[in-house]
Amino acid sequence: MKIATFNINGINGRLPRLLDWLAASEPDIVCLQELKAPDERFPAAAIEAAGYEAIWHGQKSWNGVAILSRIGTPVETRRGLPGDGADTQSRYLEAAVGGILVAGLYLPNGNPAPGPKFDYKLAWFERLHAHAADLLASQLPVVIAGDFNVMPTDLDVYKPERWQDDALFRSEVREAFAKLVAQGWTDAIRTLHPGERIYTFWDYWRNAWGRNAGLRIDHLLLSPDLAARLDSAGVDREVRGQEKASDHAPAWVVLGDKKRRRSAPQRPPSS
């Protein structure tokens, strides 16, 4: 089973790129972020024609998440992250599909930091901690996939010294991500590629793509039973180099049918 996450950065404007990637990569399940479209403007017909069923949680101009599947209808189990009934931003969607529970998220950016947006990010993280702990306690096979807007370590950012005060790299945010993983989640890409510089995002500005000045902010976290089935993980970085591309590239994991033994990986450099 191949599961991917892709911040599409405007699903209608980049629909041809999305459809091309779906045809080439053939993921079984996809979590999308930054739809930037209200529910009624989600391109359901085009997605269906590509062989995928979908559920989505849209928002005009901003945010928006979706779950696509070509292995069965996603059965929605949650819309919106619990813990704050006043939060109306479309950032979390959860569904049962293909025998697993898929949680797709778009964590707040948080800039400028410090400030109200950063406070919202940290509060959102706290709510995620609580809900993720409940997901683990359920003992269901779960993947949490999406744009976390966090570079967990120095290895995940091209020039760490330039990002110390950014909301994607401040110590509070990295500690929040580490606390989440410490619950028992496996960061799939880092587990299989412990010492590599692998990026998922390259800004449109200052020729970031051409210079490979990237960030790893899109992650797939696996519950213990799915982590035991982890075969491979990577990033389709060539998608970022296409014309009118998103500033993100899709990240993915492949899960085998059976649990596999794996020696403990080397720890990445501490941040």
Describe the structure.
Residues 238-271 are annotated as: Disordered. Its cofactor is Mn(2+); Mg(2+). It holds the Pfam family Exo_endo_phos. Residues 238-247 have a biased composition (Basic and acidic residues). The protein has 271 residues and is α+β, with helices and mostly antiparallel strands. The protein has one domain (2-255): Endonuclease/exonuclease/phosphatase (Deoxyribonuclease I, Chain A, 4-Layer Sandwich), CATH 3.60.10.10. Helices cover 24% and strands 25% of the residues. It is built from seven helices and 14 strands. The strands form three sheets. Strands 3-4-2-1-14-13 form a six-stranded mixed beta sheet. The chain starts with a strand and ends in a 16-residue tail after the last strand. Mean pLDDT is 95; it is low at 263-271.
Main traits of this protein?
single chain, 271 residues, alpha+beta, Deoxyribonuclease I, Chain A, 6-stranded mixed beta sheet, 7 helices, 14 strands, globular, disordered C terminus
Radius of gyration: 17 Å
* Helicity, as a percent range: 10-25%
With helices defined by DSSP (H or I, 4 residues minimum), what is the helix count?
7
Return residue spans where pLDDT drops below 50 for at least 5 consecutive residues: 263-271
Overall pLDDT, averaged?
95
**What is the beta-strand fraction?**
15-25%
Distance between the termini: 32 Å
> Any idea what the CATH architecture is?
4-Layer Sandwich
SS-based class: alpha+beta
- Shape summary: globular
Main β-sheet, spatial strand arrangement: 3-4-2-1-14-13
Domain Endonuclease/exonuclease/phosphatase: 4-248
Family: Belongs to the DNA repair enzymes AP/ExoA family.
GO molecular function, one term: double-stranded DNA 3'-5' DNA exonuclease activity
Biased composition (Basic and acidic residues): 238-247
